[in-house]
């Protein structure tokens, strides 16, 4: 395939409803993160190359496709008071946390539905990719797991079974991994900082799926300080692993906290690598004949990295040319 593939319609979700997903009191996951990305997108002119979508809220019915009803009710209650934590101390409640969280999930669902309807070929939701949330509780700044809801909805509404989930956030996507650990139809690929040095402490290379799902999960823990070269040493194997699953839908969680200079992690990937990964996943989806790809922002706590990394991903989605490093 040529580097200069025809541009497709790409939707990017922007709005105050998802920007509101952020925690108070100088918490690292603040409400400035969406704007850090969008400011850089405007500087680069990407805002003129994409179709801007407005956020949508998820319904309780949609949330409970992944989460337990008891947990959803708990978030609703604590959203009213803004008191306490939704996990063991990383994810505080705040007034309106339920509404903000439901907009994150609803926006990811809307992006997926637009792709499935053919209204766009690919989409990016910057404030999404909350990969630590478990079915019954929050975790690691993540209240509702939009990725899990999207996967269940693909199955229930579109009969899409084979999904590839690729995660290059510095932190292991434990909320997604353990939810689908025994599901042979979810190809799970996760590059992350070794759990011996970083939250959540999971994602060992030996975790390859259970039962019928054995060998459908690939965890690639990297030592602190790892950069693009270390990543690329494993990429050919990882891409072959994805191709073998022949996914009908591709999801990329492109957390910017794996980029050099993040205050909470210790990897040294480049923004360009984020774009290269997105570009290659676009080609994978197109080679499989459907072209369906949803990218979600995930983590990232350095505003400059957020802007550069996520814009590199969006450039790849609209097929701005990249040089080959694959």
Any overview of this molecule?
With 326 residues, this protein is α/β, with parallel strands linked by helices. The protein has a single domain (10-317), classed as 3-Layer(aba) Sandwich (Arginase, Chain A), CATH 3.40.800. It is 37% helix and 12% strand. The protein has helices spanning 16-19, 33-43, 60-63, 69-81, 97-117, 146-158, 174-179, 228-245, 271-287, 303-317; strands at 10-13, 51-53, 122-125, 163-167, 186-193, 217-222, 249-253, 293-296. α5 (97-117) crosses α6. The radius of gyration is 18 Å and the shape is globular. Mean pLDDT is 95; it is low at 1-7 and 320-326. Residues 27-317 form the Histone deacetylase domain. Keywords: Acetoin catabolism. Belongs to the histone deacetylase family. This is Acetoin utilization protein AcuC.
User: Class in CATH?
Assistant: Alpha Beta
Q: Mean pLDDT across all residues, rounded?
A: 95
* Tally of individual domains: 1
Computed over alpha carbons, the radius of gyration is 18 Å
Helix residue percentage: 25-40%
The CATH H-level superfamily is: Histone deacetylase domain
Q: Which architecture per CATH?
A: 3-Layer(aba) Sandwich
- Biggest sheet, in brief? 8 strands, parallel
- Identify the strand order in the major beta sheet: 2-1-3-8-7-4-5-6
Number of helices: 10
Sequence of secondary-structure elements:
EHHEHHHEHEHEEHEHEH
Strand percentage:
5-15%
Unreliable residue stretches? 1-7, 320-326
- Secondary structure category: alpha/beta
Terminal Cα span: 13 Å
Query: Using DSSP, what is the number of strands?
Result: 8
Q: Based on CA inertia axes, which overall geometry fits?
A: globular
CATH fold description: Arginase, Chain A
Oligomer: single chain
């Amino acid at each position: 395939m040529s580097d200069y593939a025809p541009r497709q319609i790409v939707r990017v979700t922007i709005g105050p409803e998802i920007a509101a997903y952020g925690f108070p009191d100088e918490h690292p996951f603040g409400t400035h993160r969406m704007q850090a990305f969008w400011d850089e997108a405007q500087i680069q002119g990407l805002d003129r190359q994409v179709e801007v979508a407005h956020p949508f809220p998820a319904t309780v019915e949609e949330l409970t496709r992944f989460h337990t009803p008891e947990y959803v009710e708990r978030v609703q209650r604590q959203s009213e008071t803004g008191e306490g934590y939704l996990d063991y101390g990383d994810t505080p409640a705040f007034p309106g946390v339920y509404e903000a969280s439901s907009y994150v999930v609803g926006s990811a669902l809307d992006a997926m539905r637009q792709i499935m309807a053919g209204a766009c070929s690919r989409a990016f939701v910057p404030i999404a990719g909350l990969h630590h949330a478990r079915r019954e509780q929050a975790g690691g700044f993540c209240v509702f797991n939009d990725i899990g809801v999207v996967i269940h909805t693909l199955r229930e509404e579109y009969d899409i079974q084979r999904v590839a989930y690729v995660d290059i956030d510095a932190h292991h996507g434990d909320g997604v991994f353990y939810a689908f650990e025994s599901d042979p139809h979810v190809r799970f690929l996760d590059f992350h900082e070794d759990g011996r040095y970083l939250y959540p402490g999971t994602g060992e290379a030996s975790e390859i799926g259970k039962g019928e799902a054995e060998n459908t999960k690939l965890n690639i823990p990297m030592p602190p300080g790892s950069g693009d070269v270390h990543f690329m040493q494993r990429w050919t194997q990882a891409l072959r692993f994805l191709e073998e699953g022949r996914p009908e839908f591709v999801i990329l969680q492109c957390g910017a906290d794996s980029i050099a200079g993040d205050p909470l992690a210790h990897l040294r990937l480049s923004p360009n690598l984020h774009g290269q990964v997105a570009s290659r996943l676009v080609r994978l989806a197109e080679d499989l004949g459907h072209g369906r790809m949803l990218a979600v922002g995930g983590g990232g706590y350095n505003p400059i990295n957020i802007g550069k990394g996520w814009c590199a991903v969006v450039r790849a989605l609209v097929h701005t040319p990249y040089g080959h490093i694959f």
